[in-house]
Amino acid sequence: MDWILFLTFVAACGAAAATGAMFKPGEWYEGLDKPVWTPPGFVFPLVWTTLYLLIAYAAMRVAQLPGSGQALAFWALQIALNTLWSPVFFGLRRMRTAFIVLCALWLAVALTLVAFWTLDPVAGLLFAPYLLWVSIAGALNLSVWQRNPQYA
User: Fold this and answer.
1) Best CA proximity match to 101, nearest among 70, 115, 80
2) What does the alpha-carbon distance between residue 127 and residue 130 come to, in Å, rounded to a whole number?
């Protein structure tokens, strides 16, 4: 394991996580109409920490392989979109725009998964929980937006 490379990808994930820390749900989010299947608040940091470690490890594995340029470009795109979502949803309170960001994020994660899989199936599999979570987040974003149309 290349610890320096792994920690570099962890740092990129940390920058994305920082926007979640800076733009917290707070009272505004608590006051919104949300579906009954909304995960409790404590779940989000646990899931995201796990996912960030998985995708950093996957990226470290792929970065050491020849021909990984496009796969790593998809990785960079997904982490950039990941970083953008919290400020748009919680900061600007623009649920429609956040949903568009989330759809682009889902596509970028799916493309990363496929690109990683072709180079290293283990790295591709490490992205599967992330794609699942982004799918759940997309459904939640859409549901909350539909229940609270004043924040389109």
Assistant:
1) 80
2) 5
